[in-house]
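Quick one, T. Sequence first:
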Amino acid sequence: MIKAALSLLLVLVAVSSSLGKPEKNIPKRGKRIPQTLSRGWGDQLIWAQTYEEALYWSRSKNKPLMVIFHLEDCPHSISMKKVFAEDKEIQKMIDEDFIILNLVYETTDKHLSPDGQYVPRIIFVDPSMTVRADITGRYSNRMYAYEPSDIKLLLSNMEKAKKLLKTEL
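Structure tokens:
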């Protein structure tokens, strides 16, 4: 009887001590930052959640839309994201003059993949909801692709999107 009581007491102590400890959810790869809509492309920027919302903001604020297609585990997307997020001039121009959206999935709008579905891909859309197929990167086989070394070209294309916006509307 005493052995049974001691066993029961031991079990109760073990259960109560394990319930009193807070769980520690330590991620496998160090400290994790909560996921935001920026996905690391510029945490201080205001990002649209969906393509439809981005089109609405673009039209109502009369600003061009920049759509970034990428994948979280793509090495090209990761290297472009790093350069993009660190470039102060691009971040400032986006903050002041653009509506921005990044997507890790394809949309149903086929106009956003005029030459195929690859990543990273950056497409500009004007407030009249016209995809700016004329604003391209430097590659003929992936017209809307940019690499980290193309950051000045991207900045130039952003300027072009702003200027064309003012002259066409």
